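User: Let's play a game. I give you a shape written as tokens, and you guess the letters that built it. Ready? Here's round one.
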């Protein structure tokens, strides 16, 4: 990576309409142009297998999709599908035989495709690099996780809505499927829950699927519970996560300040530049020696450095301690513990401690986001939203900080800071030289 010309991953905007293969191809094509901006340590596979430290851990990725990107259902479905594939192939062969691969049911391909990975399709090349889950068990399995106290909360929601069977029946009816699925197949009840949570129209975590894709998947799931029945959805979800969500998440994670902090710091940089220009005008109009104009250089240099860094989401003051601001949803996880921290200790706060504080909050979504089944991903009614809106502006600009544990992320931030210093130097030197060269007017 070039020090002077390093660029963060470009922001990949969402395309309108439901997920389609052509859209996923556009996502991947855009991302491939800037692959060098994402180090291997922050790759999609490392994050999904939870090998990256905060602020690029799997929980951070989920937080980004819930609170920033608003499409966490893709990752929640993807985690479940990989865990489900592992559990499916761990069954005895006699039980797996009850749910043959979907391609085998249709007669399009031979039945001898029993592997420990999800079957690949002919369109795999359209989504760039393959997925390399050589050890699927390393992906967290929300379905097999121990029950939490929030299960009663989820059960309460389920009791007031349609049953899983009704949701599946309605979804099948909307696409013209009239007959019932094979109930004797393994994991049929779990598949029905997945349909009622992710596939059915109006479901709590409905995937953004086209009518055609939804029909194909529901038709396949009526015949078999084999993981290959999800192949069309799997391709779209993988393409979106790899080509759009992942690069945007890395770009967002590089920022060490919240939006109010970054805007404040950016304005400070602009103010320093204007102050340097004002000082230069006053010195040019005065009778003092032109060498006094050298004092414009530090103002230019500081203003450009702060401004360029803030433009890329970095606050130089926070960066000196390799820290970042707590996100708004992290600030109220356990207010008593966070507020009791001294200013000298806040930068050394462990990210794991913050996660623990947030997961203990009542009604918080961070403790539930890894669950496969549950309520939707809306956070409008979470307690922290109202409390953050009432927070004074000064406290938003100066929230608590936590240390950045990911060494690769620290290196990327160092690179951006040094880059801003270099660009600032290249801009400040000729500007100062030009100001010194201007003859004095001697008016003041």
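Assistant: Ready! My guess for every position:
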């Amino acid at each position: 990576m070039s020090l002077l010309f390093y660029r963060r991953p470009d922001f990949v905007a969402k395309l309108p309409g439901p997920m389609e293969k052509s859209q996923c191809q556009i996502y991947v094509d855009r991302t491939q142009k800037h692959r060098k901006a994402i180090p291997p340590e922050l790759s999609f596979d490392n994050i999904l297998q939870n090998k990256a430290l905060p602020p690029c851990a799997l929980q951070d990725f989920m937080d980004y999709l819930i609170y920033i990107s608003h499409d966490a259902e893709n990752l929640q479905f993807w985690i479940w599908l990989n865990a489900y594939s592992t559990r499916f192939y761990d069954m005895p062969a006699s039980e797996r035989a009850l749910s043959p691969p979907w391609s085998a049911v249709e007669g399009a391909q031979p039945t001898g495709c029993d592997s420990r990975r999800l079957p690949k399709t002919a369109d795999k090349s359209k989504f760039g690099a393959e997925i390399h889950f050589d050890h699927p068990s390393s992906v967290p399995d929300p379905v097999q996780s121990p029950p939490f106290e929030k299960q009663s909360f989820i059960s309460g929601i389920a009791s007031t809505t349609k049953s899983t069977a009704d949701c599946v029946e309605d979804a099948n009816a909307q696409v013209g499927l009239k007959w019932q699925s094979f109930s004797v197949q393994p994991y049929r009840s779990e598949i029905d829950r997945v349909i009622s949570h992710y596939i059915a129209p109006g479901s709590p975590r409905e995937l953004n699927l086209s009518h055609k894709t939804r029909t194909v998947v529901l038709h396949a799931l009526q015949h078999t519970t084999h993981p290959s029945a999800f192949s069309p959805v799997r391709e779209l979800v993988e393409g979106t996560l790899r080509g759009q969500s992942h690069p945007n998440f890395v770009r967002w994670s590089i920022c060490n300040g919240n939006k109010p902090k970054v805007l404040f710091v950016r304005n400070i940089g602009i103010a320093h530049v204007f102050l340097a220009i004002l000082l230069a005008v006053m010195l040019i109009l005065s009778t003092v020696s032109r060498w006094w104009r050298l004092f414009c250089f530090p103002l230019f240099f500081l203003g450009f450095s702060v401004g360029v860094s803030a433009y890329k989401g970095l606050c130089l003051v926070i960066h000196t301690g390799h820290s970042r601001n707590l996100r708004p949803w992290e600030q109220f996880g356990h207010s008593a513990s966070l507020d009791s921290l001294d200013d000298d200790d806040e930068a050394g706060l462990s990210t794991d401690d913050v996660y623990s504080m947030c997961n203990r909050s009542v009604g918080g979504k961070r403790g539930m986001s890894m669950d496969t089944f549950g309520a939707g991903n809306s956070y409008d009614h979470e307690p922290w939203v109202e409390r953050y809106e009432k927070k004074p502006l000064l406290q938003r600009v100066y929230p608590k900080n936590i240390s950045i544990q990911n060494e690769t992320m620290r290196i990327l931030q160092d690179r951006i800071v040094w880059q801003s210093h270099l660009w600032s130097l290249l801009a400040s030197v000729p500007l100062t030289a030009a100001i010194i060269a201007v003859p004095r007017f001697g008016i003041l």
